[in-house]
Design goal:
The structure holds two protein chains of two kinds. Chain A is an alpha/beta fold. Chain A has one domain: Nucleotidyltransferase, domain 5. Chain A has three helices and six strands; from the N terminus they run E-E-E-E-H-E-H-E-H. The longest helix of chain A has 10 residues. The model of chain A has no long low-confidence stretch (mean pLDDT about 90). Chain B folds into four domains: about 120 residues, Beta-Lactamase; about 170 residues, P-loop containing nucleotide triphosphate hydrolases (Rossmann fold), CATH 3.40.50.300; about 90 residues, Helicase, Ruva Protein, domain 3, CATH 1.10.8; about 45 residues, Orthogonal Bundle (Arc Repressor Mutant, subunit A). Helix content of chain B is about 40%, strand content about 15%. Chain B is built from 21 helices and 16 strands. Chain B has a five-stranded antiparallel beta sheet. In chain B, a hairpin with a 5-residue loop joins strand 1 and strand 2. The relative contact order of chain B is 0.08. The chains are: A alpha/beta, B alpha/beta. Chains A and B meet through helix 1 and helix 2 of A and helix 4 and helix 7 of B.
Amino acid sequence: MMGKILITIYEEDVAPRFDLSSEVFIASLNDKREIIERKTIVLTSASPEELCHMILSQGITHLICGGIEDEFYQYLNWKKVEIIDSVIGHYQEVLDLFLKGSLEQGTNLMFQKSQG
Amino acid sequence: MEIEENKTYWPIDHLRMDIRELIDGIPVGVALISPDLRIHAINRAMESLTGFNRKEVYGVPCRYIMKNNLCTRERPARNILAKEDQIRAEGDIINLVRQKVPVIINLSPLKDHDGKPIGVIETVEDISLVREFDQKIQGPSSYHNIIGHSPQMEEIFKTLQLISQTDSSVLITGETGTGKDLLAEAIHLSSMRAKGPFIKINCGALPENLLESELFGHKRGAFTGAVEDKQGRFRMANNGTIYLTEIGDLPLSLQVKLLTFLDDKEFYPLGSNKPVKSDARVIAATHRDLNEMVRQGTFREDLKFRLKVIRIELPPLRERGDDVRLLMNNFLQHFSKKFNKRITGFSLNSIPIMLNYTYPGNVRELRNIVEFAVNLCQDEVIRREHLPSYLHESITMGVPVSDNLAATSSVNTSTPLMYRESLYKATSHFDWEKIERQMITEALAQSRGNRTGSAKLLGWGRATFYRKLKKYKLG
């Protein structure tokens, strides 16, 4: 299996902030980068520490999130979780981009070209 | 009132260029938000606060740019449009460089000539400096019963919050009396194992055979006098934490057994051939230099590596700057209450003696000195004569007390101690204020006028440093 990804979500979008996310989407991927299992978990409350614990206990290899505080970023990074943060967009679109291998830190799918 | 969502034309569009110029002059972060809660424009201050370039944010929902805790939970801008109300609240944002910044957020409706709301104006004011100052004047930072606001301790408190969420082994090192036991207990109490047992055992307190039985238990008849089964500390610590203090004193034979436990989470009690499982987190502590012990062959290197998954080094008190004063006052309050005395503080001539001592026994020694003084004191303030005589002797002899440390402890010459010692030697008569003033000027000279660097050199917090600059008119 290639890995397991977790996206912190808010309604249908990537949650703007990691520490305030109370819902997560988890997908397990095979070697061909295809989803073999997916689930959404609603947490009882938003807690960055609980989220870190969940990420480690679930064996998550990739985290996709919005804004994340440096201490959690460094901690998860130290624990060998690959983090793509500051992502803005609908989580399904973000997931598709990730599966294509073109999701980057700071990807903004909601930007509209200025009319001015 | 009805709000048109996702409309393409916004009544202030034709004014946008002027408005941008106007809001750029405002020193706090400003964002103009359209009725569908998307960013229309932000000013320069908002750019530097959030880390976003204004060209990247047009049309993006505001909660993704400001990322403040209010907007991600309650979407107050929507309420403002509906109720035409204003909101002012404290919160925090996370910027693009992953910093959490405390802010004050103001949200007000933007209205057209007819008074109809056409959007929201949001201002975000960075209050991190105010918060920092508040924390300093409110009192010490603390974690469970550990107090201190020196930069070294602040760093440890920050790390502890993360460590408590993990289940990895922890190795605490530090000189005697620096608070290793307190720290181990704090880690346990803030971990997910807090409801489980916290079992402490001193590895240096028992002979090898007894220690093995104490740690891993034994079966009845395992040795003469083993009249019944004993479960051992590791089993007692199941679902909790076992704290092995003085791990450097653990005999080599037991080091192997501990190693096996750390690998497999199981062990064999004395006289038993059945393994026993125990889900205990291991926290170990020592004042010894384990690297040196490994070199000498008295401590297993593989055990050292397994134990120090997370390593915390507690700084000696002499390197904690103003924490001495903080702890003095804290212990004074504690013992005054305990011994039912009405001591309000330390006299002016006793403070320099206390501050100038280098505490080879660290916090424990300071605590004992204060306890001694409180016992002796019949006044409202602790005077010079209430302090133990060895403190006076060190002062009158003109020898810094740290000299007796030289043999046992290597002192980093860049620490605040260097200032205290060198200045103390150079001063024939004791004048703390003079010494302190000189310390500050030397620190400033060494750091080429950089105040943050000087505060760090002296082991003081920034607020303390600024207060002292003002006091000695060096600012």
